[in-house]
Specification:
By secondary structure, this protein is of the alpha/beta class. The protein is built from 13 helices and 17 strands. The strands form 5 sheets. The chain has a 4-stranded mixed beta sheet with strand order 1-2-3-15. Strands 6-5-7-10 form a 4-stranded parallel beta sheet, sandwiched between helices. Helix 3 packs parallel to helix 10 and helix 11 (294-315) packs parallel to helix 13 (370-386).
Length: 387
């Protein structure tokens, strides 16, 4: 009997090793992994370059306190700010930590300019921003909050796509609007470009901050470094994680100079965040993603994948309701609960994972090959035919 707590409903399968897009189970079976740790393994399993760079750093120094300068972190922060809207970075260990820190940054900014009462964060109801106490209250989901009372105050909510309820929810205490650019857990729902631009206008008009959660959809997953870049908007704060570590625990908060001004010594800290080993891996991931043509290829290959999936939808109109998403963050929405379909895919050696609204989440590594997508398409067609 396992000594692990039962907070995960684990599938009855374990893996001994992985390479690229594939996982190899302990009983010798080969699986095409289009879960990739839920968009974590951005460059696939056991990426040789990441291993080389991590090993190189591991021989020098793993950890040093943030009480000292960490050169590897200085380099990574400089690269992130040079390529994005941001002026400053705070490193974390995970997406949930990055969300928590983003909330603190927003509140602290208004405190620092003498508006301490502006401390409420406005989020989409039934969204997902992590599983820490503040994050589950930011989600507005009764299911996620059940049994974890008392409720953490400071969050208000509006319905997805309902601009009237959004505008109505903003009041004199609102500090920021926080949304996922693509709702990963909520059914792979993409916030349209025009809507993101409208959110920016509203925030400007109301003099509040815009936090765009790119923990799952960022770091090249949509064919641009950040998903919001498609809409050509500039947020104030962006939490990231998952893909930036390529499988190694790493998160960060990116922010403008204006909002960073409130974060003075003592306002936030983390024991392991920004450690030299994590920073070397983050730099190695950027080495690959910033290579000429890399993101263009993500766009090209994802377009091919979407075209193939939409053809399957046409062939099976009573089974597949919609193909959703952007880039290589893909949702296959069924008319009914997808659990049996996901199991059938696994039986045929394709790993996927569930999202909300009867949606199957498909998350290949960003360097996936066309031949591997063709394997996935063949398996999906087979399961559709048998279903």
């Amino acid at each position: 009997m396992s000594a692990l707590a039962k907070n995960y409903n684990r599938r009855k399968i374990a893996f001994k090793n992985g390479k690229g897009s594939f996982l190899y189970s302990t009983n010798g079976k080969k699986y095409l992994d289009f879960v990739q740790g839920i968009a974590v393994n951005s460059l696939g399993h056991s990426n040789p370059y990441l291993i080389k760079e991590m090993y190189k750093q591991a021989k020098k120094i793993w950890h040093v306190s943030n009480a000292f300068i960490i050169p590897e972190g200085e380099i990574l922060a400089k690269r992130l700010t040079k390529k994005t809207f941001a002026d400053s970075v705070i490193f974390q260990n995970s997406g949930a930590e990055a969300i928590e820190a983003s909330i603190k940054v927003a509140r602290r900014y208004f405190y620092s300019i003498g508006q301490a009462k502006k401390n409420r964060i406005l989020c989409i109801k039934n969204s997902f921003h992590g599983r820490t106490i503040a994050a589950i209250n930011a989600s507005g989901s009764k299911k996620m909050q059940e049994g974890f009372g008392p409720k953490v105050d400071g969050f208000d909510h509006f319905k997805f796509g309902d601009h009237k309820s959004l505008k109505k929810a903003i009041n004199s205490k609102t500090a920021a609007i926080m949304v996922e650019t693509v709702m990963g857990e909520g059914g792979i729902k993409v916030i349209p470009d025009w809507c993101l631009r409208e959110l920016r206008k509203i925030c400007n008009k109301k003099k509040i901050l815009l936090i765009l959660d790119e923990v799952q959809c960022g770091i090249g997953r949509t064919g641009k470094f950040f998903a919001f870049e498609h809409a050509k908007v500039k947020p104030d704060i962006v939490p990231i994680a998952k893909g930036i570590g390529g499988g190694f625990p790493l998160g960060a908060v990116l922010m403008t100079k204006k909002v960073a001004s409130g974060m003075v010594p003592g306002t936030h800290g983390t024991t392991n965040g920004g450690n030299p080993l994590a920073m070397s891996v983050g730099n190695a991931v950027l080495d690959q993603i910033f290579k000429k043509g890399f993101l263009k290829n993500v766009h090209k290959i994802s377009k091919y994948f979407f075209n193939e999936l939409n053809q399957i939808k046409i062939d099976y109109p009573k089974l597949i309701k919609e193909v959703r998403g952007m880039g290589l963050l893909i949702g296959l929405q069924l008319f009914n609960d997808p659990i049996k379909f996901i199991k059938k895919l696994q039986d045929n050696k394709l790993l996927t994972i569930r999202s909300g609204e009867n949606t199957i989440r498909i998350l290949p590594p960003l360097n996936v090959k066309k031949s591997e997508i063709d394997i996935a398409i063949k398996i999906i067609k087979k399961v559709c035919k048998e279903f």
